[in-house]
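can u do me a favor
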């Protein structure tokens, strides 16, 4: 008798069947330790900060383009719109409603929200001063890939299950992806990482929407040349045979 059958009284005893046993919470709860969950939460928080930073930059870019289109001499369609329409467009882009306890409605602009986050952002920049600066200027070119290197460092090691769930959560946001790079022995030492196995740097990658669709592969010039030569060779052989018969005659 199987040892698990002795402990749980068979599949039809404690769990009911084999599938319930294999996918039960009791067996899966030990997949991540508390420390692993904490590191995964820290990594998710860093990604969310980066994602919001990119989102704000994209919004500011839209506002900038609207302002440029409204200038005299601009070839944009915005120049032909009335001022009221322009104001509505800018309000839609910049201003977000905020729930309030009173009956009166209030709004919060992006700069004000960013100003409230400045102390936290300053503290984060001190902790992550060795990160590569994100080149937000590249966000204005459709199809560009913006890479934030060293978003997660080796001292915030993600186990296999944590990496699986974290990468899946990142890819759930449109345009986002992540990749891992193995840290060298010197890098592990620099980050005071004592694990014997592999540890990784994690980079976040954002693809700017609006890129051109991938082109279909064309037939190579070599195959085209071969196909073009085949009929010519056959004709040459026939004419050569005719010449030989004529000579014999």
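np, heres the sequence
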């Amino acid at each position: 008798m199987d040892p698990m059958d002795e402990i749980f009284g068979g599949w039809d005893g404690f769990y009911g069947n084999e599938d319930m046993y294999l996918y039960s919470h009791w067996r899966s709860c030990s997949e991540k330790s508390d420390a692993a969950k904490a590191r995964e939460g820290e990594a998710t928080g860093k990604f969310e900060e980066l994602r919001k930073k990119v989102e704000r930059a994209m919004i500011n870019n839209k506002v900038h383009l609207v302002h440029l289109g409204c200038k005299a001499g601009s070839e944009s369609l915005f120049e032909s719109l009335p001022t009221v329409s322009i104001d509505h467009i800018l309000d839609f882009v910049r201003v977000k409603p905020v729930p309030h306890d009173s009956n009166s409605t209030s709004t919060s602009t992006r700069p004000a929200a960013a100003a409230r986050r400045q102390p936290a952002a300053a503290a984060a920049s001190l902790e992550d001063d060795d990160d590569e600066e994100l080149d937000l200027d590249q966000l204005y070119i459709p199809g560009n890939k913006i890479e934030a290197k060293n978003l997660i460092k080796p001292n915030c090691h993600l186990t296999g299950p944590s990496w699986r769930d974290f990468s899946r959560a990142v890819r759930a946001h449109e345009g986002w992806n992540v990749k891992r790079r193995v840290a060298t022995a010197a890098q592990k030492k620099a980050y005071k990482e004592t694990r014997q196995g592999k540890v990784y740097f994690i980079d976040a990658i954002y693809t700017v929407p609006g890129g051109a669709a991938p082109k279909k592969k064309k037939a190579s010039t070599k195959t085209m040349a071969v196909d073009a030569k085949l009929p010519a060779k056959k004709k040459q052989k026939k004419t050569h045979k005719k010449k030989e018969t004529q000579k014999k005659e």
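Residues 218 and 224 are 10 Å apart (CA to CA). hope that helps!!
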